[in-house]
Amino acid sequence: MPVARHAPRNDYDRAHFGQRWADVDRNGCDTRNDILRRDLQAPVFKARTRDCVVLEGTLDDPYTGRRIAFEKRRADAVQIDHIVSLSNAWRTGAQALTPEQRTAFANDPDNLLAVDGPTNEDKGDDDAAEWLPPRAAFRCEFVARQITVKARYGLWVKPEERVAMARALEPCAAR
After folding, report:
1. In three state form, how does the secondary structure of 89-155 look?
2. Does residue 163 belong to any structural domain of this protein?
3. Residue 20, Cα to own-chain centre: how many angstroms?
4. Which one, of 49, 33, 35, lies nearest residue 108 by Cα?
5. Considering the domain boundaries, does residue 3 fall inside one?
6. Any domain includes 95
7. CA-wise closest residue to 160 among 134, 127, 135, 133
8. Range of the domain at 54
9. Do residues 169 and 143 lie in contact, with contact meaning Cβ atoms separated by under 8 Å?
10. Beta-bridge mates of residue 58
11. What is the model's pTM?
C-alpha cells in the first residue's frame, strides 16, 4: 500500500461523496438500512417497507463487545461507521476519484459497520495511528478491513498509520 502524508482537509465536504445512504445496490433499500439488516440480530422492520426500514434489533457491538438494543427512535445509540472515514479517504487519495467512485466508497458494505454510537463519535475521522477499537479482539479485523478498502480505492496511508497497522496486525498471525 502506498505511504504518503495526508493531503490537507481544507476542501473536504461530505457532499463530495454523494447522497447520504444511497441505494447503490438498487435493492429498494438505502445503504444504512442494508447495514442494520446485516449487522443486527433479530431485526424488526416497519410494515409495508419491503423489509427496508429497520425499527429495532440487537447489536453485538464489535468495537466494545457490548450488547446494545437498537430502536429507530433512539438511532444515535447504534451508528453506521465508515471504517475508513470519508474525511480520511479525502486526505489519502479520494480527491482523485470520480464522483461515482466516491459514492461507491461511501456506501461500500466492506467499509460500513453498525457500532456503538458514542464509540463511533470518539473515533471520528481518526486513522489507525490515532484510534483502534477498545475491544482488542476486533482490532485485526478492523485494520484488515481498512487495508482492504484503502487498496480497493487506491488510497494511501500516512507513515504513522502504516506502523500502527503493522503493530495491530502482529498478533493476528498467531490466531
Report:
1. HHHCCHHHCCHHHHHHHHCCHHHEEEEEHHHHHHHCCCCCCCCCCCCHHHHHHHHHHHHHHHHHCCC
2. yes
3. 13
4. 35
5. no
6. yes
7. 127
8. 14-174
9. yes
10. 41, 69
11. 0.93
- Work out the burial of residue 76: count CB atoms within 10 Å of its CB; fewer than 13 is exposed, 13-18 middle, 19 or more buried: exposed
pLDDT at 144: 97
Residue 68 lies in a domain: yes
For the chain, helix (H) and strand (E) counts, in that order, are 6, 5
Q: What is the pLDDT of residue 175?
A: 61
CB atoms within 10 A of CB 78: 24
Q: What is the Cα–Cα distance from 13 to 87, expressed in whole angstroms?
A: 8
Residues with Cβ < 8 Å from 141, sequence gap 6 or more? Answer: 62
Q: Give the total number of structural domains in the chain.
A: 1
pLDDT along the chain (175 residues), means of 10: 80 93 92 97 95 96 98 94 97 95 97 98 96 97 97 97 96 78
23: its cell numbers: 441505494
Cα separation of 39 and 115, whole Å? 9
Q: How far apart are CA 104 and CA 31, in angstroms?
A: 11
In order of 78, 123, 155, the CA distances from 98 in angstroms are 30, 27, 13
Rg (CA), the chain: 16
